[in-house]
Write a structure and sequence with these properties.
Length: 192
């Protein structure tokens, strides 16, 4: 009987180490649309308090660790980034995680290359396969700009959305004179 107990006790540290290794697995790219239109900056905030969202598809269960978006903000802006469930492909207000960040985190000097900015979730949400959305909002009087993707449907798995004052209530599919657009984005997930 003692031998079995000794073997079982010897296995405990090994199992604990295995659990730590699984928990610390690096995030993997789960969804992305990285094509941009460098001349298509979308207002985030501003006088119409525009909000933007991009839905995306998750094909495996795991924890969403962070998202990346090409944006630039006024240093004093207050930015709120949320991960939400979707209904009919659009954000439905069911928040899974959020981060509130100062605009200086997204402050950038204009250059020929437009860089992605990382938003890391302090409490990464566990998600299963399905469609989710990342939403962007600026609180207060300062604003930001987000670079749109090219015209058309470069990410056919989901859509981009906006809400702005003086429009009908609710999310509207993102469009302009050239047609519909997606946002540029990347979503990283730690698989189970």
């Amino acid at each position: 009987m003692r031998k079995r107990t000794g073997r079982a006790m010897a296995m405990v540290p090994a199992l604990l180490l295995a659990g730590v290794a699984v928990a610390a697995s690096p995030p993997e790219l789960e969804a992305e649309q990285v094509n941009i239109d460098p001349g298509a900056w979308l207002a985030l905030g501003g006088s119409v308090q525009q909000r933007l969202a991009q839905s995306f598809e998750v094909v495996q269960a795991g924890y969403i660790s962070h998202v990346m978006v090409p944006m630039s903000c006024q240093p004093k802006a207050d930015v709120r980034v949320t991960l939400e469930k979707t209904s009919g492909g659009m954000p439905d207000g069911s928040v899974l995680a959020y981060e509130e960040l100062p605009g200086f985190v997204f402050d950038s000097v204009p250059t020929p290359a437009i860089g992605m900015r990382m938003i890391e979730f302090g409490a990464p949400p566990l998600v299963g396969p399905g469609t989710y959305a990342v939403t962007l909002r600026v609180k207060g009087r300062y604003d930001c700009g987000v670079v749109a993707g090219p015209h058309g449907d470069p990410y056919p798995a989901a859509r981009a959305w906006f809400i702005a004052a003086d429009n009908p209530p609710g999310w509207i599919e993102l469009f302009d004179a050239g047609g519909t657009r997606d946002l540029a984005f990347q979503v990283f997930l730690r698989p189970l």
